[in-house]
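#structure-requests
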Amino acid sequence: MNIVKRICSIVIAFTMVAALSPAQAQDNAAARAAREWRTAHERQILDDYFAFLRIPNLSRDLPNVRRNAEYLMQAMDKRGLKARLLEVPGAPPAVYGEILVPGAKHTYVFYSHYDGQPLDPNEWATPPFEPVLRTARLDLGGQLLPFPAPGQRIDADWRIYARSASDAKAAVFSMLTAVDALNAAGLKPRANIKFIFEGEEELESPHFAQILAANKELLKGDLWFICDGPEDPSGRLTIKFGARGIQKLELTVFGPKRPLHSGHYGNWAPNPALMLAQLLGSMKDAEGRVLVENFYDGVVPLNAVELASIAEAGNDDAQRKELGLARVDGGGKSLGELINQPSLNIRGMSSGRIGEQAANIIPSTATAAIDLRLVKGVTKEGQVARVIAHIRKQGYYVVDRDPDDATRLAHPRIARVVVSADGYNAVRTPMDLPLAANVLATARSVRSPIAVQPTSGGSVPLDMIVDVLGTETISVSTANYDNNQHSNNEDIKLLNLWNGFETHAALIMME
């Protein structure tokens, strides 16, 4: 089949799935069972979820990460999921469970993670591991609520505030609650269902490939469902066919060996804070386009169906207004288009002190933490090499450790670049994957219309799943888009948690 016929056939298939009649939409028996279960058990569900959220889960806090794994083992065993820990030396465990169906034609693997991002508790309105309910979003005046009394009405617009309330304990808990609902309704999956919950995704999954390789036969499936990330800002159930990859690096430039008095030495000693600002400024233009040479080379373009799915999402005006942005980067391109391009992001900068702690000094160093988001066709190694080449072109001698005195005196501009040992490349599953139509139809039978995206802006370790297991992946996102994930005051809207139960129940019952 030539490329024109292939694209036409994809467009027709995509359109047919999109054109489900209203009678077909929102009529899924498993989703109804989840709704009925949730309606009858809302207070108990919240109580159970709060208990899960109270267990600290910062990725580097291994004792507490293991406490989370033990909690999940008990929760899965309680539901008959034959839980076990999948471990390799030096890594948090992944927690595995399964429902095996004799004679099943398909095997679906449901993935999420239970670890969380670093935090500063002083930045939170309430302690991050003491979950609370609020009437609405905190920045819009959401008020604290007491835990619901027996028989009290629970409003779907309320929000739970806690670290990992949305990313990604919500998805883990949602899948387990979906199993509760299906068990109560006597509904038995028709495919083999496997669950795996990772414990170090927020560290870029440094050991996950080893876990996959050590359990290759156990974890193989026709399709992996990646249950992570926020839904489309429209509030529609969101299906994503890929995810960006990520590579982190830290860039430090050097001034005098010790901080100097800014009056005595200003205009003479080079200021590394200014040097760093100028160096970073050389990496992007006023529209946010990366100026690093060859940065966009090799990007695999979107095909007709993928472009159509982005166009169908509409414009970004409402989100821009909600975020208070008078202008955005990208030269007029939509958010959907731009997350299918590689990016260079400054995660944070540090040099000297500010506020009441500021001193009149020329600092000795300045550091920026950078993340490179990757898309199909560019690699983590290639993008790092391009960035380092750009730094050299700006006149810097690049090292990977603190320079000694001889190096300092030999080179007028020195940059230390430390590349994270972890990271992974992007994956984009073809939208004409044979099982894709079934997934989209199932999603539309729960909530319609849905949002379909070629790529998630966030990063998930899809490449190692594809490379090690040879399987395909599709992401299902249910958390509210305004959830403050990775930041302080993270939340999950109850409506999204409730909807997640229904979505996961329907996918678990997919033939």
